[in-house]
Design brief:
- The protein has one domain: TIM Barrel (Alpha-Beta Barrel), CATH 3.20.20.100.
- Helices cover 38% and strands 17% of the residues.
- It has ten helices and ten strands.
- The strands form two sheets. The chain has an eight-stranded parallel β-sheet. A two-stranded antiparallel ribbon has the order 1-2.
- The longest helix is centred in the first third of the chain and has 15 residues.
Length: 280
Amino acid sequence: MAVEVPIIAANGMNLPALGLGTWQLSSDTVEDIVPVALENGYRHIDTAQIYKNEEAVGRAVEASGVARSDLFLTTKVWVDHYAPDDLRSSVDQSLDRLRSDYVDLLLLHWPAFDGNGMTDTLEALMRTRADGLAKHIGISNFNIDQTEQAVAFCGEGMLATNQVEYHVYLSQERLRRVLARNNLVLTAYMPLAKAHTVNDPVLWEIGSQYGKTAPQVALRWLIEQDRVAAIPGTSNPHHVKANIEIFDFALSEEDRAKIDDLARGQRLCQPEGLAPDWDD
């Protein structure tokens, strides 16, 4: 039976609290795993130009029979397409690959801008929304200062999310406060810390009280927070099903406090030449 995933409303966007991430998934794997996800209740599929699997996502979604209006598709513009004209043409190509007239959410993948700064790119991003290519727009991997600059330039209510690494071992408390102040969602990628949570004794101990696994506890901890969504990625059908089975229990305050204490500044994604100066 398909799980009904709660919706997070922010700046006009209705984002499923849990989605399927497709980073590092081959096209063949995407075409195998997306149908499993949709059958189990996922409606948000996250991809990116640099993942080289947008076409597979498009094929899988089209073959699923799920109405496009019931789906939430996210893709991200890669940094070598940030020039305004190039950004628009790259989005057109993404839409062709995704077999869709629009994406629900379009993000700038990393805050890597040329000498002119981010304003020209943000203007081009906003134009894709105005022209109907993207229903909502946002940013990814922006630190606090960059987030505040982007929000100030785009104006109130324009940006919908900042997609960043976030899991039990990496506190994003300061960034979350900034995003909440501007009504943006924090979309957590690597929400299971590249499977590090699988072996965590604290998470297993907590999970034993609820009949849940350590990864399920880690995901539940995230989505219980205000305006936080998660997009775990996996090639394992069993994990796809397990990851969405987190909406039938709630953590106690005591358990949440134990999980909060796991934070140790462990950041797993720091690509040289792309990552900004992080705030923590």
